[in-house]
Amino acid sequence: MTRTPAAQAVITGIGWVGPFGAGDSRLLAEVLQANVSAIQPRAGYATTGLASCLAAEIPSACLPLTEEARRWSRSSQMTVLACRHAVAEAALTETTALTQAGLVVGSQYGDLRSTEAFCLGFLRKGPLGLSPLLFPSTVMNAMAGTTSIALGLQGPMLTVNQDSVAGELAVARALLLLRAGRAATVIVCGVDELFPLLYDTLAQLHVLSPRQQGDEACRPFDQRHNGPVLGEAATALVLESPAHAQARGAPILATISGACWGGSPTRPGHVPSLEVASDRIVTRVLDEAAVPPTAIDMAYLSGYGDPQHDTVELACVARAFGAARPLVTAVTHLTGQSGGLGALRVAAAAVTLQQGISPVLDYLQQPIRTDIRFVTQPVSARPRHILVHGLALGGVQTAILLSPASHVDATAM
């Protein structure tokens, strides 16, 4: 019996604010083509006494300096700017297509910078030190609210908060909104920022590379990996129903053929053990899209850089595909790790499908598995389909399947 594919969505615009600047899919393509890492010693604040000092930071010159933007927190500035680039590339104008669009924002930490400033005001001056201007930014939904107002959006709005895979979950929830008919267009943004308190705390807890072993670096899937290196970014995508995008003549960058999420039991702050880690999220998304495993030519994985995390994620993918394993790549060696990074991986997969450009894991000298094919040199052929997989601390898994623009079914929605 032939499985009927679930309703699709199409990506018509990409916006990115990251360590390489701000722009649309053209900037992302340049970054993937150059394959040069933005990870370097932190410039914004001292690292004295910390074993960790590396990060991929956004240059301050990237963020807007308008009077309007000065009222927003830094994370809201990142979100609004990324969404504006995506909207511009999708050619959405101040019409019904934009005003009735929905918005889903995914973030691991939210605006912790504003939360810290708000709390410090109380600790230093008591109740009189609490700032009514800062308080709205302490709410997890603040970035989505600010962006909705800035862009004039009137559709459904949602914020997804999840460790490591908030970006992918935001894409998956946006797909549900489209399938339910809640909106014909949904803007998705995965965003997380760096700031001293967050970085220093994680470094002091030895969560970050080098974890008191070896030299500090971002080396996912290599035997020398010893923890993640943090980055910051905001990545936005415009998702539309195929019929809506084609009716307005929108450029289609890629098709989202399926999205699933679930989890495997484990302790908080840990990944599942190899014995209980499940491949069912991957097999579910393949079944949902009615695409056989042999048609998946590439997989963008989390590339967290933690030995246990990398080992379990590769095991899940290997079990799902058996002998027909796709090429594996990641973007963390270029941009660092952040909770909203999954949206960037989806955007990068769209660029790979459209232009045949993918990040090369050129640092990979000692793969932790020799039965996995990694992208260690430029790939000439364009993939037929790409899996974007995420694994979070706590056991949550995500799987999003992307297909070329030509794979779109205008009758699917």
TrEMBL record:
The protein here is known as Ketosynthase family 3 (KS3) domain-containing protein
**Which Pfam families has this protein been placed in?**
ketoacyl-synt (PF00109), Ketoacyl-synt_C (PF02801)
Annotated Ketosynthase family 3 (KS3) domain ranges read 1-404
Question: So what family is this one in?
Answer: Belongs to the thiolase-like superfamily. Beta-ketoacyl-ACP synthases family.
* Classification via SUPFAM superfamilies: Thiolase-like (SSF53901)
Transferase listed as a keyword: yes
Query: Does this UniProt record's set of keywords contain Cytoplasm?
Result: no
Keywords in alphabetical order, please.
Transferase
Q: Mind listing the GO biological process terms from this record? A: fatty acid biosynthetic process
Q: What is the top-level taxon of the source organism?
A: Bacteria
Quote one Gene Ontology molecular function term.
3-oxoacyl-[acyl-carrier-protein] synthase activity
